Amino acid sequence: MAHEKYKTALKKRLLELDERLHEIEDELDGPHSKDWEDSATEREGEEVLESLGVAGQQEIARIRAALGRIRDGSYGVCAKCGDDISPERLALLPDTPFCKNCAH
């Protein structure tokens, strides 16, 4: 199958993200300091972790959509114009649904 290397890379990235999101959840669920200054610093850190978690969830959704396109045979075809997505673009962004021209 022509897209097997992309499928493998996407699944590997999905596992990495899943592990990272579980680590973020564990960190957010951990005990908090009673000291006001430490607590404020922890809240700032939690905001960063939450934004990383949201970004990770968005990437997971893009990867799952790409894996769905591999399954249905539409992977590598631009969702907007129907042209082929270049192999170079897929190598850089394996979860992209758009060719270079339509991504702008």
Structure report:
The chain has 104 residues and is mostly helical. It contains 3 helices and no strands. The two termini are 30 Å apart. The mean pLDDT is 83.
Estimated radius of gyration: 18 Å
Uncertain regions: pLDDT < 50 for 5+ in a row? none
Helical proportion, percent range? 55-70%
Q: What string, H for helix and E for strand, traces the elements in order?
A: HHH
Largest sheet, if any?
none
Q: Helix- and strand-based class?
A: mainly alpha
Average pLDDT level: 83
Task: Give the terminus-to-terminus CA distance.
Answer: 30 Å
Strand content: under 5%
Helix tally equals 3
Count of individual beta strands: 0
Net shape: elongated
Main traits of this protein?
mainly alpha, 3 helices, 104 residues
Brief write-up:
The chain has about 100 residues and is mostly helical. About 65% of the residues lie in helices and about 0% in strands.
